[in-house]
Specification:
Length: 110
């Protein structure tokens, strides 16, 4: 988790200085280096959201959700779906159903 906190610190530094393009490039490089790290996609989605690029933010959150599901981290997958829903995507009903299904699976395991 230290590596992720260092990434967060650097991203916050760039974003507070209005250097979002640089932050995007940095994150894309990190994702290229480690494509199975869902937290990187969540952070990329947040930058897209800040830039008003909603569809791209949703796309990155979808990737993070899938990676969380694959790794068995349903709680994080649910959080990713909730983040998608806050963006009010065009096909909101699909995401709402996914959320209901994931929450039911999560309760079934508890």
């Amino acid at each position: 988790h230290q590596a992720m906190s260092e990434i967060d610190s650097f991203l916050n530094h760039l974003i507070t200085r209005q250097r979002t393009t640089e932050a995007l490039e940095y994150l894309n490089t990190k994702i290229h280096e480690n494509q199975s790290q869902p937290g990187l996609y969540r952070r990329l989605a947040e930058i897209y959201r800040l830039l008003g690029r909603k569809e791209e933010a949703v796309s990155q959150l979808e990737i993070s959700k899938e990676l969380y599901v694959q790794s068995g981290n349903r709680k994080a997958a649910i959080e990713a779906l909730m983040a998608i829903l806050t963006l009010n995507p065009a096909n909101v009903g699909i995401y709402q159903r996914m959320l209901v299904d994931l929450e039911a699976e999560d309760k079934g395991r508890a």
